[in-house]
Amino acid sequence: MTLWSSSDPSGASVTLTAPEVQPGHTLLSSSSGYSVLEFIGEGCFGRVARCRNLATQETVAVKILKKDTDYLQDTEREVAMMEVISVLNPDHSNMVKFFEQFEHLGQTCLAFEMLDECLYQMMLERYWIPLSLNEILTIAEQLLVALDALKGLGVLHTDIKPDNVMCVNQLDQPFRVKLIDFGEAMTSSEVQTGMDLQPAGYRSPEIALGLPFTEAIDVWGVGCIMAFLYLAENLFPVDCEYQMMKCMVEVLGQPEDHMLRAGIHTKYFFIEEVAAHHPTWRLMTPCEFTDVNNIQAEERHSLIDLPGSLDDLVNIQIHPEEEAAEIEHRMAFVDLLKRLLHVDGDQRISPQHALQHSFITKWHLTEPFDSRPPTTTSVCSVGASGDNTSATLIFDGSNEPSILSPDGDAVTHSNIDWAGWSSEGEILPGSSEEDQDAWLSEGEISPFSNEEYSVSWFSEGELPSCSNEKEPDALSSDGANPPELTAAMVRLKEL
């Protein structure tokens, strides 16, 4: 990399070039030095090195970015977004820790916590053996917690995929994961209809069709990841946009006409035909797609028989000796998947409600099989043991659960004071503000316990954003954003 050049009166030029960073070199920041141990990744952005922080002796990951103006603004955006989410506790909200940005001999470096491997690499090392439902549950819960925390900040990740979900330490903490790579993240105020976001195969219908969108696009990504872990195969093709949409229509059904009429990219995939009373839409054939868009529609290749509908997932690899409870757990999994992959983003389940779904809470595994209610209506008891204030949380096919109070009256979720309650029906030990602060600082919460969901995501425990007892956008007690968050948001808007 050229640092500077000069010329003398004789016309000879002198150019000084920074040496390429090698293992054994030390990267210097204002706060510490980072000894480069080895390089563990490389991409168009630069390289990633495993380093030792000489001040703390921690092993960290350092992105060493190319000195390329094309990536400069992307880097600034990623750093600004990391500052926005830095108000969250990264361990409780399941997001990668960002330590600092610094310059080393003209190269921008970003220091993050060292993680293990991404979900794609994990599946590769497992020889593509699907995960069990309990393993998928563990990962899904952590991702939903992360999305709920981001929603509280008004942030969309926009790039949820197996490559951006990292195992923390698969040997010592199996299936403990964190969300990484906020280079494509944005605030809700930056959202514009028609933006080109999300990778093929993990792209939501509203992005593919060019519809208005919200943080629900990230929920879609989590649903796709859950299907990927269950099938050991992408549910929707990642190498052809046409096949992605075709599979989406076959498995989930065609988007409703009102969505297709409103989409600014609809005619990329669909043809409008005149009917007796109103126009209707149909998916193009591969030949029509190629003719209209001048893009070849690739054939889909898969090593497994992919489902014709999500309901078919219940019977995949089923064994006769499986107990009824295991089959019912599969049914709960498929039910949640349907809600996460709802074609209409406005009707897609929210992270908060998904965390209360029976697949996550496992309510159906806590009673004898014969005494449990039918799977068409999911019921979760909430209340203190032995207390007469207990109620029942009901999932009846709608995205908003209703509550059956002790006297038998159904009330909406928003009218219930959830503070201090867990999905197991126990009062949380951190239900008071003092207990919550101590809980966060002393680290007594299980890293992916559902109880953690009722506690604030913020680093010091004093700024609840997504706890059940407050609205998601209530970032502080007086309704104002914390100063560090406001400053980070301002910087992001200036980029």
UniProtKB/TrEMBL annotation:
Q: Does the keyword Kinase apply?
A: yes
- Enumerate the spans annotated as Protein kinase domain: 34-360
Q: Where is this region: Disordered?
A: 460-485
Query: From what superkingdom does this record's organism come?
Result: Eukaryota
Gene3D superfamilies annotated for this entry?
Answer: Phosphorylase Kinase, domain 1, Transferase(Phosphotransferase) domain 1
Q: Which Pfam families does the record cross-reference, listed alphabetically?
A: Pkinase (PF00069)
Instruction: Respond yes or no to whether keyword Coiled coil is given for this record.
Output: no
Q: Which GO terms describe its molecular function?
A: ATP binding; protein serine/threonine kinase activity
Per UniProt, ATP binds at K63
Keywords attached to this Swiss-Prot or TrEMBL record, sorted alphabetically, are: ATP-binding, Kinase, Nucleotide-binding, Serine/threonine-protein kinase, Transferase
Which family, according to UniProt? Belongs to the protein kinase superfamily.
Name assigned to this protein = Protein kinase domain-containing protein
Give the organism the record lists: Pagothenia borchgrevinki (Bald rockcod)
